[in-house]
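subagent[fold] <- orchestrator: predict structure for attached chain, return tokens only, no commentary.
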Amino acid sequence: MVKILPKVLANLLRKPFTVKYPYEKVEPADGYRGKPSITKEKCIRCWQCIRACPDRAISIDKETKTPVIWLGRCTYCGECAEACPTKTIVMTKNFEFLDQYEK
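subagent[fold] -> orchestrator:
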């Protein structure tokens, strides 16, 4: 008990580690993999993203012949972004969409 008391007192004087999200915005840490983003104009239709996706969350839009990511199946591993030679798919730091359902 005596060993813990100085740490308890020190922590009482410190600023809290948590914030009041969503009222205070949080910046994700470096390396955070959020929602994948596709720039359709950059796609060369090599389909490496489809082959790399372990969740089979990427399909091809029949009209535009570009990849489409099904976010309900995606686990945000980033394998598609790493496999893409033209960086058509990039992992954003967007995490605020996770409480919404996309139809």
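orchestrator: received. Logging for downstream: Residues 28-91 form a domain with the Alpha-Beta Plaits fold (CATH 3.30.70.20). The longest strand covers residues 36-38.
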